[in-house]
Design a protein that fits this description.
By secondary structure, the protein is an alpha+beta fold. 41% of the residues lie in helices and 21% in strands. The radius of gyration is 43 Å and the shape is globular. It starts with 6 loop residues before the first strand and ends in a 6-residue tail after the last helix.
Length: 443
């Protein structure tokens, strides 16, 4: 007699089992059927889609759970593999890409050399600045020391109006400190700034500088450079008190290891009175002459003439002020580095003794509208020179990453341009113009 084909329903699927007649039919789970078939074919069972999405639900019968566990053999867990036998190939590929990328990039990051600015910062932090330090670090330390001294002395003249102090940095290296006072009792505007610049000179700039500095390597396409300077401009409120300017700087070119290639010093100081007081002019020039004579008796007359020519406004046919000293590009052809550094230090030290007595005796003198308007006209001339002819302003504005507010600190807070103004004959204003058109040797 033919065998019967009983039908079982489980989870929405029909399962057939061939049994001899007269036997009780016990339900089989689909997984057991697949396991049985796989054992015959010696292949791993193929999972069904619905079994990958949700856990297997056992068929509920009248038997107890214990008896079901005893009668049904455990189903082994089968790992998902590819045809080649590799487990989780996509995960392995992703991990491999990350590892290889880190291996390729990490050596470059670890072996990248620090910049010259970073090495200098480390040297200052670990060892400080001594006489054995590179000149660029010694010059930086000097101008910061003098900045503190000058700001402290000027603050004593007007304790009620504090200097605003801004510290700033440059992405390429360096930075500066700007100390500015505005609308004070003594100074309408006073600025004392230090700046430190690290950068790279392109080929055209190198060729231009080689005109005055033969030590610069002519066979390179770019050069690292360092510049440090202290710049000061004081515009008093009182027209009887003179404006004064000071700037001392150091410039150096280097190879990529920080070794000095060429160097030079520059700077000077000059007085710009609104009304001329001979005793003030003599005192100022004598102070700076004494500083020059400590190093070379030919310095003062040479640098005084240079100053009169430099601070000249060609389109007006007059000087900006009554001068002082000015020099630039002083390198090993002038004197050795230590001698010139000492000269710059003495010039900086002579500033406060040369200017403080003048501002002290003029800051409280009486004045009226006429004097104030003349002061505004003379400040207009100051602006014309600085924006049109001054090389320092031009260099600063054309330096990548320059801080414009610090560069234009030299401009007065107020100025005036009066159409076709003429000084009265025999007046103090006319005498001032006469000296500006024909410089005088004050000492």
């Amino acid at each position: 007699m033919a065998a019967s084909r009983p039908c079982l329903q489980w989870a929405g699927h029909t399962v057939f089992r061939r049994l001899p007649l007269g036997k009780n039919v016990s339900p089989l789970r689909p997984a057991q059927i697949r396991l049985y078939a796989a054992s015959k074919a010696n292949l791993p069972p193929k999972p069904r889609p619905y079994e990958q999405q949700k856990p297997e639900t056992p068929l509920v019968t009248s038997k107890s759970k214990a008896s079901q566990d005893a009668s049904v053999p455990p189903v082994p867990r089968v790992k998902k593999q590819t045809a080649g036998g590799v487990y989780a190939p996509k995960l392995r590929l992703a991990v491999g890409v990350v590892l290889i990328g880190s291996i390729l990039t990490s050596p470059l990051q670890l072996t990248e050399a620090p910049t010259i600015a970073e090495r200098d910062t480390t040297a200052k932090r670990e060892s400080g600045v001594t006489d054995k330090s590179p000149m660029r670090l010694r010059m930086e330390a000097l101008i910061k020391e003098k900045q503190n001294e000058i700001v402290a002395a000027l603050q004593e003249l007007d304790p009620s109006h504090k200097f605003r102090i801004d510290t700033w940095s440059r992405p390429a290296g360096g930075g500066g400190i700007s100390c500015v006072q505005q609308d004070g009792e003594v100074f309408e505007k006073a600025g004392v700034n230090t700046s430190i610049v690290y950068g790279t000179l392109p080929r055209p700039a190198i060729e231009k500088m080689r005109v005055n500095h033969n030590a610069i390597d002519p066979d390179v396409d770019s050069l690292e450079f360092f510049a440090a300077g202290l710049s000061l401009v004081l515009h008093p409120q009182n027209p009887n008190a003179p404006t004064v300017h000071l700037n001392y700087r150091y410039f150096e070119t280097m190879d990529r290891d920080g070794n000095c290639n060429a160097w030079w010093f520059g700077g000077g100081t000059d007085l710009t009175p609104i009304y001329l007081y001979d005793e003030d002019a003599i005192h100022f020039h004598r102070s700076i002459r004494d500083a020059c004579d400590k190093h070379d008796r030919g310095y003062y007359p040479r640098f005084k003439t240079w100053c009169d020519k430099y601070f000249y406004i060609p389109h007006r046919g007059e000087a900006r002020g009554i001068g002082g000293i000015f020099f630039d590009d002083l390198d090993q052809e002038e004197k050795d580095q230590e001698q010139l550094f000492s000269f710059v230090k003495d010039c900086l030290s002579s500033f406060l003794p040369g200017y403080l007595p003048i501002i002290t005796r003029r800051k409280d003198m009486p004045f009226g509208d006429r004097e104030k308007q003349w002061q505004q006209l003379r400040r207009g001339r100051y602006v014309e020179f600085n924006l049109v002819h001054d090389r320092g302003t031009s260099f600063g504005l054309n330096t990548p990453g320059a801080r414009v507010e610090s560069i234009l600190m030299s401009l007065p807070l107020t100025a005036r341009w009066h159409y076709m103004h003429e000084a009265e004959k025999g007046s103090r204003e006319e005498r001032m113009l006469g000296v500006l058109r024909e410089p005088i040797d004050w000492v």
